[in-house]
């Protein structure tokens, strides 16, 4: 075959294949994206975003991780969170984080590792104050007013979940909690800001970055956190620092919620109060005449609707204090004054 004929034929066969290869290689050039342009102005969401960033930047340096080594030297110990409340290195945390620890180490947000010692601690309040030595002043969080919070308020939790890096969780107050003027008893503040293992001792902040509570419990799924109101801490911490030995009181009764059927049989309408299931012999309630099937409707004029209410009110008062019980016995009102006793070791698992 003539070369002049073969050359155009080869070009005709090869050139389309080359074009196909080039088209395959350049397919990525067909994908186009648009780069975001700087916004012309600031939206409300931008301002909200900037506020969150500012809150994180100003609060996070005061949050610390606490590592407690076990006294037996074999188990790993525990990890929790805490926060500076004084520039000289005083840290608030939950007592159960440092319980039975041999050594305590604090890790700050900027990577410092500091030895810590326990200044004071109370297991019933689940409150502890630690102290570290540092060459520079510690960044601190201001303590707010937990009585002013409302359901729906913005809530922020800073902590070290799972013993890892510092974390910020955002949510709302889903239950406002409560403190009592003459008692260390309280109801927890509840929030849907994330609370996971390692969060205990971390602060619950409001939108101004003020501490309104300290996280001490979390739900199993981590979607609910429970915080001790900061007003209670501000009330009790000075007493602990003065060296007061707080021995909490108890009544010596076992209680249960009152059902509608029980309320009807006892002549209660509407249903209210807590029914006494048993009275422990020789204990404060028994000595003043509290009886089985009595219905406790108030403690020191504060209405109660669950055994937990009674336990918190009574357990927040010291042994020896006088408590006024408002009781209904077979539908008739009765008032008894009980000097609180000390819970015996044999009754530790029991209520009341």
Topology diagram in text:
Elements: H1 3-25, H2 44-59, E1 63-70, E2 78-86, E3 90-93, H3 95-98, E4 101-107, E5 113-122, E6 127-132, E7 154-159, E8 167-175, E9 178-180, E10 183-187, E11 189-191, E12 203-205, E13 211-218, E14 225-229, H4 230-241, E15 249-250, E16 253-257, H5 260-265, E17 274-279, H6 284-288, E18 295-299, E19 302-303, H7 307-315, E20 322-329, E21 332-339, E22 341-342
Antiparallel strand pairs: 1-2, 1-4, 2-3, 3-6, 4-5, 5-6, 7-8, 7-12, 8-11, 9-10, 11-14, 12-13, 13-14, 15-22, 16-17, 17-18, 18-19, 18-20, 20-21
Structure write-up:
The protein has 352 residues and is of the alpha+beta class. It has three domains: 58-132, Trypsin-like serine proteases (Thrombin, subunit H); 146-241, Beta Barrel (Thrombin, subunit H); 249-347, Roll (Pdz3 Domain). It contains seven helices and 22 strands. It has helices at 3-25, 44-59, 95-98, 230-241, 260-265, 284-288, 307-315; strands spanning 63-70, 78-86, 90-93, 101-107, 113-122, 127-132, 154-159, 167-175, 178-180, 183-187, 189-191, 203-205, 211-218, 225-229, 249-250, 253-257, 274-279, 295-299, 302-303, 322-329, 332-339, 341-342. The strands form five sheets. The protein has a six-stranded antiparallel barrel. A hairpin with a 2-residue loop joins strand 9 and strand 10. The longest helix is centred in the first third of the chain and has 23 residues, at 3-25.
């Amino acid at each position: 075959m003539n070369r002049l004929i073969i050359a155009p034929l080869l070009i005709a066969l090869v050139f389309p294949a080359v074009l196909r290869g080039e088209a395959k290689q350049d397919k990525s050039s067909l994908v186009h994206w648009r780069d975001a342009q700087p916004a012309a102005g600031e939206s409300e969401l931008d301002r909200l975003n900037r506020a969150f960033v500012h809150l994180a930047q100003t609060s996070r340096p005061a949050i610390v991780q606490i590592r407690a080594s076990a006294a037996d030297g074999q188990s790993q110990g525990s990890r929790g969170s805490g926060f500076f409340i004084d520039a000289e290195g005083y840290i608030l945390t939950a007592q159960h984080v440092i319980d039975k620890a041999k050594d305590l180490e604090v890790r700050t947000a900027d990577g410092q590792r500091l030895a810590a010692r326990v200044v004071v601690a109370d297991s019933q309040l689940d409150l502890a104050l630690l102290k570290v030595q540092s060459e520079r002043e510690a960044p601190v969080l201001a303590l707010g007013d937990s009585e002013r919070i409302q359901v729906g308020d913005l809530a922020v939790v800073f902590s070290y979940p799972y013993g890892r890096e510092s974390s910020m969780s955002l949510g709302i107050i889903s239950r406002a909690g409560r403190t009592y003027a003459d008692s260390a008893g309280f109801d927890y503040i509840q929030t849907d800001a994330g609370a996971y293992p390692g969060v205990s001792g971390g602060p619950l902040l409001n939108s101004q970055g003020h501490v309104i509570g300290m996280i001490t419990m979390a739900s199993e799924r981590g979607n609910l956190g429970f915080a001790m109101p900061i007003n209670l801490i501000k009330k009790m911490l000075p007493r602990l620092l003065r060296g007061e030995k707080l021995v909490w009181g108890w009544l010596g009764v076992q209680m249960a919620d009152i059902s509608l059927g029980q309320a009807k049989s006892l002549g209660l309408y509407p249903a209210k109060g807590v029914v006494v299931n048993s009275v422990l012999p020789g204990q404060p309630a028994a000595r003043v005449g509290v009886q089985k099937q009595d219905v406790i409707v108030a403690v020191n004029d504060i209405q109660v609707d669950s055994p937990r209410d009674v336990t918190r009110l009574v357990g927040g008062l010291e042994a020896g204090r006088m408590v006024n019980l408002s009781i209904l016995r077979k539908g008739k009102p009765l008032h008894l004054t009980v000097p609180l006793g000390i819970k015996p070791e044999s009754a530790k698992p029991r209520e009341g």
